[in-house]
Design goal:
five-stranded antiparallel beta sheet; 1 helix; globular; single chain; mainly beta; Tachylectin-2, Chain A; 41% strand
Length: 450
């Protein structure tokens, strides 16, 4: 479905009385061990994912080799809802790659593959739903590979960017709201590995890789579980593609914008700018510049969340320091103050992004701030790698942050950690309201069996 007709459909779904009642697909119930589960009406299968020895680690790859996330997991995106003034409900979307997903090793060595979900009552103890959307290519995923359009940009692997509810508040679910999932994908198109490296070993000059020329797409859902892809203007169905100055179909309308040619577009983070005179969407995305192979964060703007205009690079590596090797994968949140039990918006925004160090090659989570969502000032490291001496589970790198505000005045960061053996998992960190959104410490997860 083309974007023009799809925008009309979204407005109709949001405002029409015929669609004002959200179908309840999941319901919560207490479990025997005191944790919370989410039951699917068609199945009662769940996977355990937490133990008391995990410290601040909250979710790991599935142990079932047939699961979509048995190899790697990445990019946790968490929403917290209060339904009918009852207890909180947390939903997590994330992407994962199975152990047998890419047996030919022809795709980029990422955690991308397919997208699934998990549920929680407190945001710390999670249960994966093993029954996903019936329309997808695996039973435990909510968005899988595009099997309907062989020419699509997302036929080889998909990865999560952001899930938004533009017509709802971040904490309270509104009936009739529509989820928008921004994601990236790669096809089986081959591109030379030399495109993405400053230097290539002798003999590998002509070696090619599939799925690296990633593009960004969007999908829509009324329940957060079953998604319908929106066909973008690009022939591949994407809504955003790498900027190529030689392609007239992909040139930007504003000639005054100084854009750099890009090699891929991925990990979109979308926010709604309510501070502007006219509410608008802003997308931050990770890319690699063609001219110098630098990894940067760029941004684009939109009036409707579907058609985008790029505006250039907003975060780039410093000449030295923890992000001199590149910048990627960010989370942007409104600044806020906790006053008398309530969060109140403050002036400005804060970004948490992933910085790569040339010194040790490891990823860390850094922070930056802005008053206008366009110009950013870096603040330094927000969350460092885990203790290497103690061989912490995240001692080899931390990244893909996603931040939410909690009722107790603290903020919680969900992030992806990597161990020295290359394995990945999700962890949590906490920042006090009395702090400055930069000083984060790992949040220890403990519970008593009942």
């Amino acid at each position: 479905m083309k974007i023009e007709s799809f925008i009309f459909l979204i407005n109709f779904v949001i405002w029409s009385d015929a669609f004002c009642t959200r179908r309840a697909i999941f319901k919560s119930y207490p479990s025997k061990n005191g944790l919370s589960h989410v039951e699917n009406k068609k199945s009662k299968r769940f996977s355990k994912s937490i133990s008391s020895e995990d410290g601040n680690r909250i979710l790991s790859p599935s142990t079932d080799p047939k699961s979509f996330d048995s190899g790697q997991i990445g990019r946790p995106v968490v929403h917290r809802y209060i339904r009918n003034n009852e207890e909180s409900e947390y939903i997590m979307w994330y992407h994962g790659r199975g152990k047998n997903f890419d047996t030919s090793n022809s795709l980029p060595p990422l955690s991308t593959g397919r997208i699934g979900m998990a549920y929680s009552k407190n945001g710390l103890f999670w249960e994966k739903s093993l029954v996903g959307s019936e329309s997808e290519d695996m039973s435990d995923v909510t968005l899988g590979l595009n099997k309907e359009s062989w020419w699509g940009f997302d036929t080889a692997h998909v990865g999560l960017g952001q899930v938004t509810l533009p017509m709802s508040t971040p904490a309270v679910m509104m009936e009739g709201g529509v989820y928008l999932m921004y994601y990236m994908g790669g096809s089986y198109e081959e591109t030379p590995i030399a495109n993405y490296r400053e230097s290539v070993p002798v003999g590998m000059e002509d070696v090619k890789i599939q799925g690296m020329s990633m593009k960004i797409g969007v999908a829509l859902s009324q329940d957060g579980k079953s998604w319908g892809r929106v066909e973008g203007d690009d022939p591949t169905g994407a809504i955003m593609v790498p900027y190529d100055a030689s392609d007239p179909l992909r040139n930007e309308k504003d000639e005054n914008i100084n854009l750099k040619e890009e090699l891929y577009c991925g990990w979109p983070e979308v926010v709604v700018d309510d501070d502007s005179t006219k509410s608008s969407f802003i997308m931050y995305y990770s890319t690699m510049l063609k001219e110098d192979k630098s990894k940067v964060l760029a941004y684009a703007i939109s009036d409707d969340g579907f058609k985008w205009l790029k505006r250039g690079v907003c975060i780039k590596p410093n000449s030295e320091g923890p992000d001199d090797g590149g910048c990627a994968r960010c989370s942007v949140i409104k600044k806020a103050k906790y006053y008398k039990g309530t969060w109140e918006n403050a002036k400005g925004w804060i970004m948490f992004y992933e910085g790569i160090s040339k010194k040790d090659g490891k990823h860390r989570i850094l922070a930056a701030e802005s008053d206008d969502l366009r110009s950013w000032v870096k603040l330094g490291i927000a969350l460092d790698i885990g203790n290497e001496t103690l061989k912490a589970w995240d001692c080899a790198g931390v990244g893909s942050p996603h931040v939410i505000r909690l009722d107790d005045g603290n903020s919680r960061m969900y992030y992806t950690g990597q161990n020295s053996d290359g394995s990945t998992a999700f962890g949590v960190a906490k920042c006090s309201s009395s702090g400055n959104d930069v000083d984060w410490e790992r949040e220890q997860v403990t519970f008593s069996m009942v």
